[in-house]
Amino acid sequence: MKQIVAGFCLFFTVFAVQAQNNNPYFELKSDSAFKWGAGVFANYNIGSNAITNGFINSFYTGGFINDAQKSRVENKMSRSNQIGGDANAGIYYLQKKDTCLHHKTSAWFVSVKNRVHANADFSRDLFNVGFYGNSPYRGQTADFSGFNLQLLQYQQFQAGLIGERFGIGLSVYNGQQLLLLNAKTAMLYTSQFGEYIDFNTSYSMLVSDTKNSGPGAMNGIGTGLDFYCRLPVKLHHEQKGDLEVDMTDLGFIRWNNQTNHYKNDTLYHFEGFAIKNVFQLADTSIHYTAKRVLNARPAQQSAYASPLPATIDVKYVPLGIRYQCVVGIRYRFASDYMPYGYAQFRYRFGNRLSASAEIGYGGYANLQSGFTLKASFKKGYSGQLGTNNLFGYLFPLNSCGQGMYVSVSKVFR
Questions:
Q1: Contact present, 187 and 142 (Cβ < 8 Å)
Q2: What values do phi and psi take at 407, rounded to 5?
Q3: What are the Cα distances from residue 184, in Å, to 144, 191, 264?
Q4: Four-CA torsion 269, 274, 275, 276, nearest 10 degrees
């Protein structure tokens, strides 16, 4: 069990990260001066309501995880806990089109992105058994019920139009890898003196073609939609700001008929293994029993359609030349994501440099803070560097989220 939970945490350390700035070209919606441009971007973010950065960093680097680190995590846990996030990278090209939609600031764009999303919901008991063992549960039942895990890796090919008040992007997705695990019931009983354990489980699992999961794999295809709109907010016939609505990843992927479906509902009773020769473990019943448990029922193969973790972001942006205070709320569907409310403070230092600070609560990491710097340089170059969770770097022992994003672009005016 320790190895399973350790692998679970390692997976999130390496791959899991929250979507941020995945459509940087949408930020040019108010710029009518450019003729064409191109850019690259990358971001990652990982968040949890309980797993601290200190714990993750020690685990990832192979350091010793002491009782104090485990205790910090355990003290933050509730009955149900979340961890999740995203990792993204992409390139894009856009070109102004004066006649498109009869609007002078309209432009069309194309982009290619690699996307990874992961999220999970797990119980306090699962963490405790994974890192303390089942000895503290002698004569008791550890409850893992409700555990679910989602992993999506896919490539996105997108084209669309952007304007000052409205933008839309249509996408085609290549599904590379899928893992969906849902344990409706999972309960581990340890006898008082440790002579046996009972594991009662009812679970379902879907796994994309395991023989074809590396770079370039094509295990599914899907479509999706991104869009934004800006609606003027007026008071006494005078515009005070804009209400912005952003929707991303509204779509699905249909995985091919090589997708493996596992389903099981059973009780395992384990009393130990009889080992006849410690120097020939491969010939004992250990390997056979483990295989029999993991593959209690043969996998069924058939196609499956999964929704993407779509994001909706609604915010109020007041008018302002140098200073703005933006408030908003964000939510992600089908991803164990809590509604995230935030306030963002933006300040412009002249024409070439701007900064923003953000404070919010919700998502995967509960209390979060962010900071971003944007700079414009000569010959149309610009860059952006920031984080959605500054606490992760300032207070790594107790904070529960970290991440960073960067983008570089060039426009020709």
A1: yes
A2: -145, 145
A3: 9, 23, 11
A4: -160
